[in-house]
Amino acid sequence: MNGMMDSERSGPVVWSGIIAATCLLLLVVKQLLWLALPFIFGAVLYYALLRPMQRMVRSGFSRNAAALWVCALFFGLATLAMVLALNWSDGPEEDSWEATIGLYLDGGVSFVRNTMTLLEAKFPILAEMRLTSTVNTAFAAYTNDFASNHLGEIVVGVVTWVPSLLLAPFLTFFLLRDGLRFKKFLARAVPNAYFERALYLLHEVDQTARRYFEGLLKLTVLDTVVLALGLWIIGVSSPLLLGLISAVLAWVPFVGSIAGCVLVVIVASTDAPATPLVAYGAIVVFVLVRLLDDFVFMPLTLGRSLHIHPLVTVIMIFVGGMLAGVVGLMLVLPLLGVVMVVGETLGRLVTNPRLRARHRYAKALRVRQASIDLDIARERRGAPTASTKPLK
């Protein structure tokens, strides 16, 4: 069946529908972001824990027990790892989180000012443009009231998302426990003539999402380890935590990488304010890791998960960012992969004359069977049947 399916190519009409459906889904996800994010994180954790649960089921555990044990062990280890990462820090300690954030912001501003001073000394034309004074004025206008006005709003916004994100562990557990039952529920609604192809569709959608999320997790682990090792070598505090945050931010194309680099530079400049070479070394480490990610890690992980033309990938990334912002940048590729599988398979189902003929024949058989049942009921009542009723 796979060979037959691969030999059939989708035309421009199907691909137009695929792109239109992807754009529509991005708009829906943007409007229902509070519900979409838990499902996204739940799906990531589901595909990460599916194989361990399947091993436990094959070893004799029930699906309920296996799902419960796998989720409990994973979230317990994740909590322990987060605590260890937070404690593995040589950075400054303050009495409050506001003072800590303010200290890191001051370190980042000092790094930018020192860099501007070095550039003015190297390039006199920048000194004539008063680059340093312009940057200092802009930073002073923004940082003076950041802690009092903007920081509280950011924290409140994060807190409002906590109840929604707490749904992710529950969704992961129920997907692990009842995922097979849900697939059977969907398969029962398919007409018998399309049953084989519908099973193939469900399998391919599941495999596409599974390959993507597993590849994304492998890429995250590789980026975290390599970046943490580089930051640890140059002496930056909390290298593992910084590596993990930067790797997760890199899920968002372009914007996430810039945010991760800024975060790493701020921490490095705060750790060594008198040694700007540490911050410059952190930039070099981050750029090297991103190059390894683009040319080595990504082709080995995500590159094997979605079989999409590079031109379509780049165009859809820009379309996703235009329609749904940062959320669109992060979700456009997995949505496109799933919609591509669904659209291509449905296109083959609709345009296959043999399957449509089988479906029409099955409907005719059901009509005949219903007519026979009606004739039997009429015979029992003594009424004329369709075979004995005289023709007019």
Task: Indicate the topology.
Layout: H1 2-7, H2 12-31, H3 33-58, H4 63-87, H5 97-122, H6 124-128, H7 131-143, H8 146-165, H9 167-188, H10 195-234, H11 239-249, H12 255-271, H13 276-300, H14 310-350, H15 353-381
Describe what this molecule looks like in 3D.
The chain is mainly alpha-helical and 392 residues long. Helices cover 83% and strands 0% of the residues. 24% of the residues are buried. Mean pLDDT is 75; it is low at 1-8, 89-95 and 386-392.
List keywords for this structure.
elongated; mainly alpha; 392 residues; 15 helices
What would a concise description of this structure say?
The chain is mostly helical and 392 residues long. Helices cover 83% and strands 0% of the residues.
Q: Work out the radius of gyration.
A: 29 Å
Order of helices and strands: HHHHHHHHHHHHHHH
Number of strands: 0
Number of helices: 15
The end-to-end distance, rounded to whole angstroms, is: 51 Å
Average pLDDT, rounded to a whole number, is: 75
Structural class: mainly alpha
Strand content: under 5%
Principal-axis shape equals: elongated
Low-confidence blocks of residues:
1-8, 89-95, 386-392
Main beta-sheet annotation: none
- Give the proportion of residues in helices: over 70%
Oligomer: single chain
